[in-house]
């Protein structure tokens, strides 16, 4: 119930117990054993904020809260796009820390994932879907030696482990919600014509089966709010209130880096006008650093079967500002369904003393809608068409595909060139051989002709020498002794000249 800037939750001795609207961004905690009425309290609060014109976000774990849409403006969201408008995000918006939680990576692997994001960023590559992340990891794995020199050691084995985890994530349906169009959180900030704040319900019956996915997704939404919204300081009421039902799932297996991030977000987000309310069975489910940030506390009944349970109840009782009229410890053990111990912040920000009350039941306590009515509400929502159709824009995967294609084409053209070159060489060789052959033949011919010329010359020379020698010998022989002398002189003279000439003509 909302009256005079008060989120009214119950009453005691005729006095209303409430959260002042301007203190609703100081966060809160709703705890209690199973079945004690926590989710019902959440519903009462969500209705009250809506009446105050404050949009709200909560997750419907059991699927029994949709009846609120009979009386209040509601947008149903579903990361699988079945029971509500598709609420998707991108890999880069999820970021390495949350993704590491989602994939249950150890610290070393988480660090490497952060480096992979940095490399993608440095190279101007978009990480939208799981295909992009796989392509980027493959690239980093293949080039780890070169990249390690610049970014520090990137173990190939770790990259491969992350890659396997991405594949496992896809098998769990991650390729459905790491896609575009990504959820624009501004779409949560709506009011209907009567000024009621939009109640955004995340349908979680399927999602909550994968507790890690559930916790991570809600954290992403919170960090998205944190990153998107501007600082506004103190306002007369929050801009939006965010409820985390089954909040223990958020902190389950959360590493140090993630816890620090949650603490930082919770601490700083209130000055952006966001109130965050954690709902869980035991205050012990919430880390102390977060607990200390929660100003408005609602404690449903707890049971103490074991010494450990007793400790939890004692801690819960001690966390309240003492009311001398109440024994908090005893009261917590004996609260009935819908009954609570409550301590909210006063107008001045100081916690009120603890009181016992019964939470007002929600106006739509027993209102139900059929699944047909619900589908009708989803389809007639203006946002439905905007988020309905997925698109796949040019991002890291497409870039690496192009690179591969280019490399294949270059290789092919290089090989083509090689074949061409080989053929050219072969052709040149045959031509050379041919020419050699021709040259040899020509040489032979020349030699042959030269021989003929030589022998002709010889012949001519020999007969010429014979004639000259003979004549010379004859005259010399004649002088020596008659006819004999003449013949002998002629022959000797001829031989002599031939041999002299022969040394010149060979
Ligand atoms: N304020 C209330 N007034 C009347 N009935 C209530 C109130 N709160 C809870 N109930 C009844 O108790 C039932 C269980 O409540 P609810 O589902 O809110 O408990 P819970 O603590 O969220 O349980 P769980 O831990 O299983 O999620 C409801 O179905 C409702 O009938
Ligand atoms: Mg519940």
Helices and strands, with pairings:
Elements: E1 2-3, E2 6-12, E3 15-20, E4 28-31, H1 38-51, E5 56-60, E6 74-78, E7 85-86, H2 91-102, H3 107-122, H4 130-142, H5 144-151, H6 156-171, H7 174-177, E8 199-203, H8 211-228, E9 240-244, H9 248-251, H10 256-269, E10 274-280, H11 288-291, E11 296-299, H12 307-318, H13 328-334, E12 339-343, E13 355-358, H14 371-379, H15 382-388, H16 396-504
Helix pairs in contact: 2-3, 2-8, 3-6, 4-6, 4-16, 8-10, 12-13
Bound molecules: adenosine-5'-triphosphate (ATP) and magnesium ion (MG).
General description of the model:
This protein has 506 residues and is an alpha/beta fold. Helices cover 53% and strands 12% of the residues. The protein has helices spanning 38-51, 91-102, 107-122, 130-142, 144-151, 156-171, 174-177, 211-228, 248-251, 256-269, 288-291, 307-318, 328-334, 371-379, 382-388, 396-504; strands at residues 2-3, 6-12, 15-20, 28-31, 56-60, 74-78, 85-86, 199-203, 240-244, 274-280, 296-299, 339-343, 355-358. 41% of the residues are buried. The protein binds adenosine-5'-triphosphate and magnesium ion (MG). Residues 38-39 line the site of magnesium ion (MG). Adenosine-5'-triphosphate binds next to helix 1.
């Amino acid at each position: 119930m909302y009256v005079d800037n008060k989120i009214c939750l119950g009453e005691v001795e005729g006095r209303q117990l409430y959260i002042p609207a301007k203190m609703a961004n100081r966060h809160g905690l709703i705890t209690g054993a199973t079945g004690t009425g926590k989710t019902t309290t959440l519903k009462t609060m969500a209705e009250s904020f809506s009446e105050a014109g404050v949009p709200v976000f909560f997750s419907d774990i059991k699927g029994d809260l949709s009846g609120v849409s009979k009386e209040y403006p509601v947008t149903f969201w579903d990361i699988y796009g079945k029971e509500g408008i598709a609420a998707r995000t991108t890999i880069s918006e999820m970021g390495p820390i949350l993704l590491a939680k989602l994939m249950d990576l150890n610290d070393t692997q988480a660090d490497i994932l952060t480096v992979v994001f940095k490399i993608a960023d440095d190279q101007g590559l978009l990480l939208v879907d799981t295909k992009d992340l796989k392509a980027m990891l493959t690239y980093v794995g293949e080039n780890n030696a070169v990249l390690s020199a610049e970014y520090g050691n990137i173990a190939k084995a770790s990259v491969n482990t992350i890659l396997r985890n991405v594949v496992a994530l896809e098998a769990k349906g991650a390729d459905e919600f790491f896609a575009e169009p990504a959820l624009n959180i501004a779409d949560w900030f709506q009011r209907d014509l009567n000024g009621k704040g939009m109640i955004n319900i995340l349908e979680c019956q399927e999602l909550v089966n994968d507790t890690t996915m559930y916790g991570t997704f809600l954290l992403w939404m919170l960090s998205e709010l944190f990153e998107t919204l501007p600082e506004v300081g103190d306002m007369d009421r929050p801009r939006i209130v965010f409820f985390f039902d089954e909040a223990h799932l958020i902190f389950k297996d959360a590493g140090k880096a993630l816890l620090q991030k949650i603490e930082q977000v919770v601490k700083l987000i209130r000055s952006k006008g966001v109130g965050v309310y954690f709902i869980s069975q035991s205050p012990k489910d919430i880390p102390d650093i977060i607990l200390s940030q929660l100003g408005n506390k609602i404690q449903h009944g707890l049971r103490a079967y074991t010494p450990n349970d007793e400790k939890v109840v004692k801690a819960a009782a001690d966390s309240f500002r003492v009311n001398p009229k109440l024994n908090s410890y005893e009261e917590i053990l004996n609260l009935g369904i819908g009954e609570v111990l409550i301590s909210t912040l006063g107008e001045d920000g100081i916690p009120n003393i603890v009181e016992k009350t019964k939470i007002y039941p929600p106006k739509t306590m027993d209102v139900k809608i059929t699944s047909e009515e619900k589908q009708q509400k989803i389809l007639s929502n203006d946002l439905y068409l905007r988020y309905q159709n997925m698109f796949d824009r040019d991002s890291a995967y497409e870039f690496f595909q192009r690179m591969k294609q280019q490399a294949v084409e270059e290789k092919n053209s290089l090989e083509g060139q090689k074949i061409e070159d080989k053929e050219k060489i072969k052709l040149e060789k045959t031509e050379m051989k041919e020419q050699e052959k021709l040259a040899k033949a020509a040489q032979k011919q020349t030699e042959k002709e030269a021989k003929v010329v030589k022998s002709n010359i010889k012949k001519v020379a020999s007969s010429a020498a014979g004639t000259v020698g003979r004549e010379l010998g004859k005259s010399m022989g004649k002088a020596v002794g008659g006819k004999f002398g003449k013949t002998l002189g002629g022959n000797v003279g001829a031989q002599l000249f031939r041999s002299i000439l022969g040394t010149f003509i060979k």
